[in-house]
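Running this now, will post back.
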Amino acid sequence: MQKDGQIISCGSPRVVCLGLMLCLMVMAGCAVGPDFQPPQKQVPDEWAGPATMPTTAPAKSAERDLAKWWTIFEDPTLTSLVERAVQSNLDMKLAEARIRQARAARRGALSGIGPTVNATGSFQRSQSPGSSGPFGDEEGPTTNQYQGGFDAGWELDIFGGVRRGVEAADADLQATVETRRDVLVTLTSEVARNYIDLCAFQERTLTARRNLKAQQHSAELTRQRFQAGFVSSLDVANADAQVATTSAQIPLLEASARQAIYSLSVLLGREPAALMQELSAASEIPAVPPSVPVGVPTELLRRRPDIRRAEADIHAATARIGVATADLFPKVALSSSIGYRASDLDSWFDRISRLWSLGPAVSWRIFDTGRIQSNIEVQKALEEQSVITYQQTVLAALQEVENVLIASAKEQEHRKALAEAVAANRKAVELATELYTQGQTDFLNVLQAQRSLYVSEDVLAQSTRTVSTNLVALYKALGGGWEDKG
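Update: finished.
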């Protein structure tokens, strides 16, 4: 073929490269293996649990409430602890490091699409064999050789194996992002739960001390009446026993409170005793607001990081089927090199010292005893497993929300009854003490009334703590604690 006075052979490198580039453009959009299809989400339209936490907040407001749900308690100390934990918690730092690792792996997978260029250089000094002459043995000539240049290679991703690898890396990166969000959800809930536990232990300690003071007063009154001959020593012994029993509870509550402080300190990435001075003062248990944005089950699938991560895992597994399938097809690569080779530096850039090469290469694994096909089957099985894991994650999430909804509803009923019991027991203590002082009843009634009051007040504090921690668990189950800033 002749063009502009030049003869172009059909077998020349220029034509071969042109043909390969044409094939590449034709097949650029082709990638073997299945395309990812988001899994079908089969969830109920409404929650089965009782609607005990209604909300009239608009969707955007509810989304903001979920992102920073701990602020609804209106407790500055809790808000400060959560914000500091997000900044310094070691699990968060570990999750962020894994995101950086996934991003680097994604860049590595993407680099496979482009060519590679290497620079080479060498120097060699050599001596040829000598010969025997009339004047003795003669050494061979010594020569120098300088060589340098560039080598380039490009494996054409005709069947999309590299692109599928990039797709898998993208999905892996998304999975690590969702893992960080999941860590964030867990962290915020753990900080809130431990803080509520701390407040509950502190309140129970105050309750025990308040009842202990009243019981000590009754014991002293009984002792005085015994000395006056109005009661027997049995009443004194019963009063002292009740004082000792209540007093024995206080060290255990104080130990539990200190352990909660230790847990909060570690969650903030600090040594266990770092928050002792800040958190030693007693605080009230954070109160639950009258309304909570529960939402509907379909929103749960969009919100929860573990479900989003499971979906990303399916995407990555699907893409890796394509990576494995691409090994069934031939691999086409272009390679070239250009450089100079000379025996001395003065002639380094002479035309005669120039060398170059250019040409395509095709490799195709025709027989490998079924290794490629086995790998494809492995990747398909892994995808199937990821789909099953996704389904399990969705069901577990739905169950978690339903469990918290029913537990919250029944605990609120429980707490209401306990509050009524506390009020009745306080009245009973007042009446029993007054009648005992007047000699109209025995000390056993006073003892029983005081014991019932302490138990009901202690259980009420525990129920108040449970109501608040149930709300924390609900927000965690709904995937609250993070916001998409992208």
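Residues 161-227 form the longest helix (67 residues). More later if anyone needs it.
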